[in-house]
Design goal:
- The protein is of the alpha+beta class.
- Helices cover 61% and strands 12% of the residues.
- The chain contains 14 helices and 8 strands.
- The protein has helices at residues 2-24, 99-117, 120-131, 139-147, 158-175, 178-195, 200-217, 224-238, 246-261, 266-284, 292-299, 302-315, 321-339, 353-371; strands at 33-39, 45-47, 50-55, 58-61, 73-81, 84-93, 287-289, 345-347.
- Strands 1-5-6 form a 3-stranded antiparallel β-sheet, with no helix packed on it.
- A hairpin with a 2-residue loop joins strand 5 (73-81) and strand 6 (84-93).
- Helix 8 packs antiparallel against helix 9 (246-261) and helix 12 runs antiparallel to helix 13.
- The chain starts with a helix and ends with a helix.
Length: 375
């Protein structure tokens, strides 16, 4: 009963915050000329073949050749069109001395160490797995991983954050008292999340990893389903616009598929995640990888090893990167081969929200009838 009351209160809070946000959001029209000033809170994304920032629902394209990172201060003048902003003047002032800027420099230093000892394709993949992001990968490589359903391993995803949380908790609980171990776990996961871009999916994973890690250090069993619900609703209470973030939607759906259907093998883990995210992928992209389960089985087991060895390579100056090269090469070869098949992915008309809602309603009924009793 307490949990349902908590959920109801959070939902009411989200609704109130969303209504207030809508009422206070400036009403911008196509053709209107605007001047925007804001601080970058997330790493740039790619849309329409170009990097862009999102400010209060407005897509702000970044001029080609200009480096923008979280923490930077942006001043931009332009005209609104159906895609976002037609930029007339774009000025960026790198933040100096901020935590995010310091972490970004640390990130670039780490990527540089990896690139010293690995070929470009393997270095880009290692950097993506360790720090998140595809900016160091070639365009063809990015397309191959997307067609194979493996984009999530090079995104700053919940999987990466969860691995970091587990490692940190295991290390510090052996070295420090429980109190200080908890503090270091929270600190390291928070700093890593900022370094990984601070996207909605990363923040969600960081919150869950911190709660689970603290529970492990305290010797208490964590109800991961309840943690997922609280983390999701808590984030929407703070920022209702997360609900429109594609990364947030996919991250929550994939995690829900894993924690509610409790898969016991790599194969069923992949199937559960794909079943849970399929309608969202079809709605947003109209494209579905048909080889994702096989690709994940062949590749996913390498990710923890690659991340661990790559992290050691960064700390030691990069020369240990040679040790992880065979695994990186394996990932690229498997992905390239599977993505080369003409029917590796299916392109269809985007699924409407009505069908998405119907799909999840059926999935909920299946869970209630087949899985809830077992769990």
């Amino acid at each position: 009963m307490v949990r349902w009351v908590t959920i109801l209160v959070l939902l009411l809070g989200i609704a109130v915050h969303w209504i207030w946000q809508v009422k206070n959001q400036p009403q911008l029209k196509i053709g209107q000329r605007v001047r925007l000033t804001f601080t970058v809170s997330q790493e740039p994304k790619i849309k329409f073949g170009q990097e862009y920032l999102n400010f209060k629902g407005i897509n702000v394209p970044i001029p080609i050749g200009l480096n923008v990172h979280y923490g930077d201060y942006i001043q931009v003048v332009g005209e609104i069109d159906e895609r976002g902003l037609i930029t007339e003047d774009f000025q960026v002032s790198p933040s100096k001395g901020s935590v995010s800027m310091t972490l970004n420099r640390l990130r670039q230093w780490g990527i540089g160490n990896i690139q010293k000892y690995l070929p470009p394709n393997e270095a880009g993949l290692a950097a993506g797995m360790l720090f998140g992001g595809t900016e160091d990968m070639s365009a063809s490589q990015i397309i191959q991983y997307r067609r194979a359903g493996l984009s999530h391993i090079v995104a700053a995803s919940g999987y990466n954050v969860t691995l970091v949380g587990i490692w940190v908790a295991e290390i510090f609980r052996r070295l420090l008292s429980r109190k200080y171990a908890i503090l270091f776990v929270i600190l390291v996961i928070t700093l890593y999340s900022i370094m990984a871009g601070g996207t909605a999916s990363v923040v969600r994973a960081a919150i869950m990893s911190i709660i689970a890690s603290v529970g492990m250090l305290l010797g208490r069993e964590t109800d991961i389903k309840w943690v997922l619900v609280l983390a999701t609703l808590g984030m929407l209470l703070v920022n209702p616009s997360y609900l429109a973030d594609i990364g947030f939607q996919l991250s929550v759906a994939a995690t829900a598929g894993l924690v509610f259907f409790s898969p016991k093998s790599v194969w069923w883990t992949t199937i559960a995640a794909q079943i849970a995210t399929m309608p969202l992928i079809l709605h947003h992209f109209g494209n579905l990888s048909l080889i994702a389960p096989l690709a994940n089985i062949l590749v996913l087991w390498t990710v923890p090893l690659i991340m661990q060895v790559s992290a050691l390579a960064v700390v030691t100056g990069g020369f240990l990167g040679y040790l992880v090269w065979p695994l990186l090469k394996w990932c690229n070869l498997v992905t390239g081969y599977l993505a080369s098949f003409h029917y590796s992915s299916l392109s269809v008309a985007p699924m409407s929200w009505v069908w998405v809602a119907g799909y999840y309603l059926v999935l909920l009924i299946v869970y209630k009838l087949r899985f809830e009793a077992k769990n």
